[in-house]
Amino acid sequence: MTDDVREVRNLQTALDSFSEHWQPHRLASVNDYDVKVFKAQGEFTWHTHPDTDEFFMVVSGRLVIQLRDGDVELGAGDVYVVPRGVEHCPRADGEVSAMLIEPRGTVNTGDTPSERTAQLRELG
Question: Which InterPro entries match (predicted)?
Answer without folding.
Answer: Cupin_2 (IPR013096), PKS_Associated_Protein (IPR052044), RmlC-like_jellyroll (IPR014710), RmlC_Cupin_sf (IPR011051)
